[in-house]
Amino acid sequence: MTTAKRPSGGKGAGEVGTERQAAALADEPVAKSGKPKAAKPKADKPKAPKAAAAGKVAKPAYSAPALEKGLDVLELLASLSEGVTPSQIAQQLGRSLQEVYRVVVALERRGYIQRPPGEESLVLSTKLHDLSYRYPPMRRLIDVARPVINRASIEAYQAFHLAVLDGLSIRVVAQVDSPAPLGFRLRVGTQNPAIRTASGRLLIAYQAPSMQEWLFEAIGQTAPKSEIDWLRKRVEVVRSVGYEMIVGEALKGITDISFPILDAEGHAPAVITMPFLASATEKVPMEDATRILYEAAASITTLFGGHLAEPRFPLANTGGPVGG
Questions:
Q1: Is the pTM higher than 0.70?
Q2: CA distance 166 to 106
Q3: What tens digit of pLDDT does each residue of 152-163 get?
Q4: Could you tell me which of 255, 191, 201, 245 has the C-alpha nearest to residue 227?
Q5: Contact by Cβ (8 Å): 199, 181
């Protein structure tokens, strides 16, 4: 991994020592001279409450500053492709080194962040990824689905992936490569806006009505009204036919076909998608491959206590991309 460039005014001769001693100063108020301030005696008379400043955001009723700092560090490292030093973390978060250092030490000790061999910079470890797979519902979903999609991928001669809702996006949680010499796949962990993917729109279509409305409203905070109106109509269409199928949305030459995995209440905890890549040497025609995809989704659905109605074959495109 390439070490991130040190920011201007970076480490001098004494900065390493400063980082090592920062924890000792983290909870002490510091005067401009660098000496700890003397604690002021509390006044006997209680002070009148200050009026809230106009437009100022109210503080949360409950606060955990150390936890907030730790989450800030994790979210920052998750967004970077290169390692950063504690000083650089402090600069990017707009906090002092003293505030950040103890949090960094604790996260490193617990294995959430680490230093590559021979480097001072810090990177995110895979521990958060491991924790997500230890969460029982997710682990059960993947354990049940993996052998089914492995077999279906071989039969269809195409790549398959399993996706779930993650906020307003979809997250790929399992994936199988195509047996073909050439293929297209989404790596595990890939995240994309739900409104702009076949997987996401199908997931929205098979949520409870209250969850659907929340998703429409939340997506509408950043998307134009025209796109939300389009999404509502598209969700009705894919729910009525039982699948989503679109050509060339993410990549020209790829047809994304998605079927839901339903639970006993008819809601979709996940969807299974095949990014079908046509080629001159394809062994399985698309119509046959889509039947294999449906059978895999129906099989996993049965294991979750649900029922997936068979659509009318051959499948037809459900429409164009958002804004198209």
A1: no
A2: 27
A3: 999 999 999 999
A4: 201
A5: no
